[in-house]
Amino acid sequence: MMRWTRRKWLKATALAGSVGFWKKAHGQFGWMKPQGGGQRRRRFVPVKENNPAILRHDMNCERCGDCVAICQQVQTVYGHGKNPEEHECIYCGQCTAICWNHGVTERFHLQEVSQAIREKKEGKSKKTFVAITSPAVRVTLGEMFRMAPGTNVEGQLVTALKKLGFDHVFDATFGADLTVMEETAEFLEKLDAPDVPKPFFTSCCPSWVRFVELFFPEFRKQISTCKSPLRMQSAMIKSYFAQLQKIAPEEIVVVAVTPCTAKKYEATLAGEIPEMDYALTTRELGWWLMEWKIPFVELEETPFDSLLGKGSTAGTIFGNTGGVTEAVLRTAYFRLTGKKPPETFFSLSEVRGLEGLRKAEIDLGGRTIRVGILHGTGAAREYLKMAEKMPFDFVEVMACRGGCIGGGGLPTTEIPLTDSLRAARMQGLYATDRESPLRMSHDNPEIQKIYADFLHSPGSETARKYLHG
Ligand code: SF4
């Protein structure tokens, strides 16, 4: 019975939501059909042993084929490479969100993190533990404790992480604000540059970037050079924050708490500039709280720590598809005109919603910018195949349907992952933005301070060294 229900909602909602748009707009939906020529149909998605984000647990797998359906038909990854038998994963974790038997899961970081914190509590280590929490976590973690989807548990989340043993808890909206500052400057610079092909693509979603690298490498140079918000914020914690606190960067352990399994891959990327050490999915945090018997629902509220903790709600809406675009347009308007954008910029209906592709022409004080918003790599594939027929200046792509509020590492409960669940989570983030006095990244006093003290200006040499990859 359960399996039938899951199949039903997968086909009726996840597929239909994306396909409907393409069918209407272009009269085609060929990407729904299994790809890969005469390839034998697999009943599970193969996962390489060295996959940094995803694990397969053969003994739990019932060969139901749900992971194949979501990976091949919705995300258009499995079976779409040159060699259909050689599966290259984009780490989005949509297979882990759909598998109720734990046949496929995230690569767990929970044990290592909880062990390291336990050692500190026992006096065996003096490391400083810093947690950064992504916007989508605050409107989804409550689902694991039977709270209504979209309930904002930001205050309890900070208290819970402090109780678990973190010394500092920062809001990743600060990293999102940094991304807005850098990405806006880069976009406006490239907008008028001769010989720079259009459109300019966002880079905050690592799975989208990997999707392009694997399937459409000809577009790679058009993706922003900005690191993801969590990578930017981790780099600032291990440099600027470490200097201020007089702590050696190697004595700081940065743990991202995120909706995203691809952040586990990002935790392996740090090179010369130290970044995050671990990434816990929202699910892992929920399991940890349950294991340590922390009464999450009853916790009092604590604000995020400041000095890298304060973010604007332009950063908060990053969790929704269209949120990056809306945040960038608010700051781009200010950069081009020197004025606060009109009220319409604080609820841009054209870029909001769950259509597979949304497009808009936005007037930035006399300059019209053509924007496109895509979510789900299936929709991105269809767009990239016909990009020249849809000229845009700026295109936002998030690999998961709905954006990060549909991330692969979010709670899987008895509530089916339908578009109404995604919409409730999205409304949770938009409500936070509506009620906020700080709705533009460039107005964030901590952003102004870090540029004055350390980064100088968006796109400066220091900013490029720490914030671009
Ligand atoms: Fe991760 Fe968000 Fe991209 Fe999904 S949309 S892969 S959660 S960054």
How would you portray this structure in words?
By secondary structure, the protein is an alpha/beta fold. The chain contains 17 helices and 10 strands. Strands 4-3-6-7 form a 4-stranded parallel β-sheet, with helices on both faces. Strands 5-10-9-8 form a 4-stranded mixed β-sheet, sandwiched between helices. Strand 6, helix 10 and strand 7 form a beta-alpha-beta unit. Bound molecules: iron/sulfur cluster. The site of iron/sulfur cluster has 12 residues, from loops. Iron/sulfur cluster binds next to loops.
Binned, the helix content reads 40-55%
Q: What strand line-up does the widest sheet have?
A: 4-3-6-7
Listing every helix as H and every strand as E from the N terminus to the C terminus, the arrangement reads: HEHHEHEHHEHEHHEHEHHHEEHEHHH
Mean pLDDT: 90
Low-confidence stretches: 1-40
Radius of gyration: 21 Å
Please describe the biggest sheet, giving its number of strands, its sense, and whether it closes into a barrel: 4 strands, parallel
DSSP summary: helix tally: 17
Identify the bound ligands: iron/sulfur cluster
Percent of sequence in beta strands: 5-15%
Q: For the record, give the distance between the C-alpha atoms at the N and C termini, rounded to a whole number.
A: 47 Å
Helix vs. strand class: alpha/beta
What characteristic shape results from the CA principal axes?
globular
Number of strands: 10
